């Protein structure tokens, strides 16, 4: 991957009322006003979209001689943009955990 960008999709007003440290955990933040950040996952909605060719994808394609692509992934709290030459997506089984922190 050549570049990535992550930006919030949460409105400023929601941020303003969601600064309490108790909102990092669902158990301690459930009864508070504000967004509970400690959800441990994000809703992938509306999801991923391949973007049209851009100046950046054309520049990298020309420099390296291989195709580059740009994708935008929208979730309920973050918008991610990735610039890459190859991307592999794998479906995993329910409950899959590549690592577990105790």
UniProtKB/TrEMBL annotation:
<dbReference type="Pfam" id="PF24712">
    <property type="entry name" value="YxiG_2"/>
</dbReference>
<protein>
    <recommendedName>
        <fullName>YxiG-like domain-containing protein</fullName>
    </recommendedName>
</protein>
<dbReference type="InterPro" id="IPR058188">
    <property type="entry name" value="YxiG-like"/>
</dbReference>
<feature type="domain" description="YxiG-like">
    <location>
        <begin position="3"/>
        <end position="101"/>
    </location>
</feature>
């Amino acid at each position: 991957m050549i570049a990535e960008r992550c930006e919030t999709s949460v409105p400023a007003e929601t941020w303003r009322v969601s600064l309490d440290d108790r909102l990092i955990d669902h158990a301690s933040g459930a009864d508070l006003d504000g967004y509970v950040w400690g959800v441990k996952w994000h809703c992938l909605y509306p999801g991923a979209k391949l973007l049209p060719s851009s100046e950046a994808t054309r520049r990298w394609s020309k420099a390296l001689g291989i195709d580059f692509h740009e994708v935008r992934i929208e979730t309920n709290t973050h918008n991610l943009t990735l610039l890459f030459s190859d991307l592999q997506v794998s479906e995993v089984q329910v409950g899959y955990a590549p690592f577990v922190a105790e």
